[in-house]
Design a protein that fits this description.
alpha/beta, Archaeosine Trna-guanine Transglycosylase, Chain: A, domain 4, Transcription Regulator spoIIAA, 3 domains, six-stranded mixed beta sheet, 10 helices, binds S-adenosyl-L-homocysteine
C-alpha cells in the first residue's frame, strides 16, 4: 500500500482542469517525507490517482496516472515511452536529434529525454521522478536501445527539489560530441557540456523554415554553435554568425566546415552594440535569424526583457534589405504569445519599415505544448518580410 496525500478541493480542481501539478499549499495531509509515488485523495475520501511526490518542493504532487490501482513500474514507463515515441512518428525522417519526452507535454511530468543519434540525454527535474530513476532508465533501454544514457541534471530547478546538480553517465557510453543531422545539414551536439542537453532542438523546424528562403547576405544573430547559420549558408553567399561567446563560434566554424561551407564568418561581439553599429553603417542583410537567449528569466524582469527584445528586433528590421526575410524568436516562458506579437508590432512601428507577418511559429511536434499547461510552451517565432 503506497503512501497517501490528501489534497484540498482547489488542488483537486487543478487536476480536473487538466493541469498535472498540485502545490504544497493545497496539501491537507502530507505523506511521509520520502520522495516517490503516492496515492492522492480528496478530503471526502475520493481517490484522484497517483502522483510523483516531492516533499521539499512548492510543486508537491505531479500527476502520473488517474488509475489508483495500476502498478507504476518499468513496464508502465515503457508503455508511456512508446506512446511518446509514436507521437514523433516521422520526425526521424529529417532529423537524428530531437526530443523524445517533453515532460508535462507528454504526460510524464518533470522528465526530459532527448535523442542525439544513438545516445540519449535525460533530465530528472523533480525529487519524485528521481526516485523512479531505475525503472525509467530500464524502460528507456528497452524502448530505444541506445548506446548510452547521460543525465544532464545540472539544472538549477533541481535545487528547489532538494536535488543536487550533476552530470552523470547512467548507461553505456556517450561521446563528448555527437554528429547529428537535421533537414539536410549536419552539426556537432555537445551532450556533456553544451547548452541545454547539447543543442537547441526546439528551433529545429524554424531553422529549416528560414533556411528555405535564405539568399544574398545573411546574419545569424545569437548564433551559438551556428545551427541557424548552416541553414542560412545553403542559400546565402555570405553568412555572419554573431555571438558573444568565442568558444561557441569556434564550434560554429567547425559545423560550417562539416557541411563544406567556407562562407560562414564568425563575429564575436555584443549583439546590441553590433546591431547599432551595423545600422549606423547602413549595412543591409537579405536574410536574418534572430534567436536571443531568454531575456525574461522571471516575471519581474519582463518589462526590461521586452525593452531588450524590442531593441534587437527594431535594429534587425532596420538592417533588413528590401524584400528580405527576418526570422525572429523568443524562448522566454514569461513572455506570452500575444506579448511577443505586440512587441514585434511596436518594433515595426518604430522601425520606419513596412513589414509583413508571413508566418507565426510555435513549438515543434517533438516539444508538444498542451493547452491548459502553459509551462509546456515557451517558443514563439515569426517570419517577417520587408515590404519596402
Ligand atoms: N540560435 C542558437 C541558439 C542561441 S542561444 C541555436 O539555434 O542553436 C543564445 C546565444 O546568445 C548564446 O550562444 C549566447 O552566447 C548568446 N548571447 C547572449 N547574450 C548575447 C549578447 N548580448 N550578444 C551576443 N550574443 C549573446
Amino acid at each position: 500500500m503506497s503512501e497517501v496525500a490528501v489534497v484540498s478541493g482547489r488542488g483537486a480542481g487543478r487536476w480536473q482542469r487538466g493541469h498535472p501539478w498540485i502545490f504544497k499549499s493545497d496539501l491537507i495531509d502530507a505523506p511521509a517525507p520520502v520522495p516517490g509515488i503516492v496515492t492522492v485523495r480528496e478530503r471526502n475520501g475520493r481517490v484522484l490517482g497517483q502522483a510523483l511526490w516531492s516533499p521539499l518542493s512548492e510543486i508537491a504532487l505531479r500527476l502520473l496516472d488517474r488509475n489508483p490501482d495500476v502498478r507504476i513500474d518499468a513496464a508502465w514507463w515503457e508503455r508511456k515511452l512508446r506512446v511518446a515515441l509514436d507521437r514523433r512518428d516521422g520526425v526521424d525522417r529529417h532529423a537524428t536529434a530531437y526530443r523524445l519526452v517533453h515532460g508535462e507535454g507528454d504526460g510524464l511530468p518533470s522528465l526530459v529525454v532527448d535523442r542525439y543519434a544513438r545516445s540519449l540525454v535525460v533530465q530528472f527535474m523533480s525529487a519524485g521522478l528521481e526516485a523512479c530513476r531505475g525503472d525509467i532508465v530500464d524502460a528507456l533501454e528497452r524502448v530505444h536501445a541506445p548506446t548510452g544514457i547521460l543525465a544532464r541534471n545540472d539544472v538549477a530547478l533541481r535545487r528547489r527539489e532538494g536535488l543536487s546538480e550533476t552530470v552523470e553517465l547512467l548507461r553505456g557510453e556517450v561521446p563528448r560530441t555527437i554528429e547529428v543531422e537535421e533537414h539536410g545539414v549536419r552539426y556537432l551536439a555537445a551532450p556533456w557540456d553544451g547548452q541545454k542537453t547539447g543543442a537547441f532542438l526546439d528551433q529545429r523546424e524554424n531553422r529549416a523554415a528560414i533556411g528555405h528562403v535564405s539568399c544574398g547576405r545573411a546574419l545569424d544573430c545569437f548564433a551559438y554553435h551556428g545551427s541557424f547559420a548552416i541553414h542560412l549558408a545553403r542559400g546565402a553567399r555570405e553568412v555572419i554568425a554573431l555571438d558573444s561567446s568565442a568558444p561557441a563560434l569556434e564550434r560554429a566554424q567547425e559545423n560550417a566546415t562539416l557541411n563544406g561551407f567556407a562562407h560562414v564568418v564568425p563575429v564575436v561581439a555584443d549583439a546590441f552594440e553590433w546591431l547599432r553599429e551595423a545600422e549606423r553603417n547602413k549595412e543591409k542583410f537579405d536574410t536574418i535569424a534572430l534567436d536571443p537567449p531568454a531575456f525574461a528569466k522571471s516575471k519581474a524582469s519582463l518589462p526590461a526583457a521586452i525593452r531588450g527584445y524590442k531593441e534587437v528586433n527594431l535594429r534587425a528590421m532596420r538592417i533588413l534589405a528590401s524584400g528580405g526575410h527576418l526570422f525572429t524568436a523568443s524562448c522566454s516562458f514569461h513572455l506570452g504569445k500575444a506579448q511577443f506579437l505586440d512587441m514585434l508590432q511596436d518594433a515595426a512601428a518604430d522601425s520606419g519599415r513596412r513589414l509583413a507577418l508571413r508566418a507565426i511559429y510555435g513549438q515543434p511536434v517533438d516539444h508538444p505544448e498542451v493547452l491548459g499547461i502553459p509551462e509546456t510552451g515557451y517558443i514563439k517565432g515569426a517570419m517577417l518580410e520587408a515590404l519596402d
